[in-house]
Amino acid sequence: MERLMNITPIKQKSDRTSDINFLNESNVRKIQSFHASFPMYQETPLISLSNLAKDLNIRGLYVKDESFRFGLNAFKVLGGSYAAGRYIAQKLQVEISELPFNKLTSNAVRKQLGKITFVTATDGNHGRGVAWTARQLQQKAVIYMPKGTKPERLLNIKKEGAESYILNRCYDDAVRYAQQQSLEQGWVLMQDTMLHNYHEIPQWIMEGYGTMALEIYRQMPVRPTHIFLQSGVGSMAGAVTAFFSNMYRGNEKPIVVVVEPENAACIFLTAQMADGKLHAATGNLDTIMAGLACGEPCSLAWDILESYADFALICDDDVSTTGMRLLAKPRIGDTRIVSGESGAVTTGVVAKLLSNENGYASLKEALRLDKDSVILCISTEGATDSENYEKVTGQIP
Ligand SMILES: Cc1ncc(COP(=O)(O)O)c(C=O)c1O
Questions:
Q1: Do residues 228 and 349 both lie within one domain?
Q2: Same-domain status, 189 and 231
Q3: How do residues 253-291 score in pLDDT, each as one tens digit?
Q4: Which domain holds residue 235?
Q5: Is the domain of 232 the same as that of 181?
Q6: Which run of H or E residues covers position 121?
Q7: Active site members
Q8: Number of C-alpha atoms within 13 angstroms, CB side, residue 331?
Q9: Is 60 exceeded by the pLDDT of residue 223?
Q10: What is the CATH number of the domain that holds 105?
């Protein structure tokens, strides 16, 4: 057996109490309409890797390619932009449906609002989305990044006109620092995870991810039997799980597998402990999957995952690089997908689980993967660290 890939079942609450209505079809349609009012909005492609699926002996493998999202190389902007829209709608006491992009970004709205500074902590993609949103709104953004952040990711945020700093702190401490700054400076915290007394904006951010989920639902030619979702704090996985659990119920509900790096496995740990409490990953969260290097789970995301997801899976960085290479050099006839470390890991997991060489037969059986499986993965980012992308794949993104 190769090095680490391990699963733990998520012991689902028998009463399924989590409220997932906020991501039901009708709400998500409204959220998608908000994003569709952006001039740069286009559905990102859903790629059928049919030749790889054939080799892996499954019915289908579909990968959503988020590298095309608003030219920002990741899905994350969907959350920050929608939350900013909701925040402004609340301030102006109007419905979000009354604030399409041209109105939201108008001088009239800016004058009504006055000067706002948005602040957040980020591994890269979320902060880039918040910085981009602030620029569209002609407002200010201050973005904090954890130690070890690659200069390219910092630069991409600065290019959006935001003030951005790499702190000598891990991700979770950077989040606390951003919250403290927001309180001291009167800035608006745009954090993609729930904190003490801070729930509204993280929920709006999760709602924003609903646009991606609805696109997938519309693009999939068949119902997925399995959805593999990578997780940092779990907000994206929670949002997509909530939406698909609203769309498919009972036996129809796809099996949801939440994927994390072994060194930042807060969802896995929380699932494994199964004691009703959240558990943080400790240590230095060392992984090439920067977007997933988060130690503390989002409480709302966990509530959803605990009720509706099926398994948590941990893996090492080799699984991610396997995914990057597979997507960079696809089977003949399949489409190439440029996918970064956090984006490619789920495809890497699927390929490793299903290629018979790796001795993962018991995991495959536990996950009920077989020749009838139709698997959905989301490549949540493109090459956000070009140097590493080139090193891993031998290709220029
Ligand atoms: C590319 C990418 N994928 C997945 C995630 C995970 O999202 P979440 O933190 O909501 O679990 C992130 C988070 O930053 C990310 O940047």
A1: yes
A2: no
A3: 999 999 999 999 999 999 999 999 999 999 889 999 999
A4: 5-75+209-393
A5: no
A6: strand 117-121
A7: 76, 123
A8: 13
A9: yes
A10: 3.40.50.1100
Q: CB under 6 Å to ligand 1: residues?
A: 74, 76, 123, 125-126, 192, 230-237, 291-292, 294, 342-343, 380-381
Provide the terminal-to-terminal Cα distance of the chain, rounded to the nearest Å: 32
Number of domains in the chain: 2
223 and 357 both lie in a single domain: yes
Residue 14 has pLDDT above 70, yes or no: no
- Region 83-96 average pLDDT: 98
In terms of domains, do 268 and 181 share one? no
Q: Are strands 60-65 and 226-230 parallel, antiparallel or unpaired?
A: unpaired
Residue 143 has pLDDT above 60, yes or no: yes
Residue ranges in the chain assigned as alpha helix (H)? 25-36, 50-55, 77-92, 101-104, 107-113, 125-136, 151-158, 171-185, 200-219, 235-247, 266-273, 299-308, 317-328, 341-354, 361-366, 386-393
Structure-block tokens of residue 88: 């402004």
Closest C-alpha residue for ligand 1 atom 9 = 232
Assess whether 70 and 110 both reside in one domain: no
Give residue 357's pLDDT: 74
Which atom of ligand 1 approaches the CA of 381 most closely?
A: 1
Domain boundary among 202, 230, 254: 202
* Nearest protein CA to atom 14 of ligand 1, as residue: 291
What percent of the chain has pLDDT above 90?
A: 94
- Rounded to the nearest angstrom, the distance between the alpha carbon of 88 and the centre of ligand 1 is 24
* Statement to judge: residues 290 and 341 lie in one domain: yes
Q: Where a domain ends, among 202, 218, 237?
A: 202
How confident is the model over 348-365, as pLDDT tens digits? 999 999 987 778 999 999
* pLDDT tens-digit readout, 61-87: 999 999 999 999 999 999 999 999 999
Average pLDDT, the chain: 96
Going by their DSSP bridges, the two strands 117-121 and 188-189 should be labelled as parallel
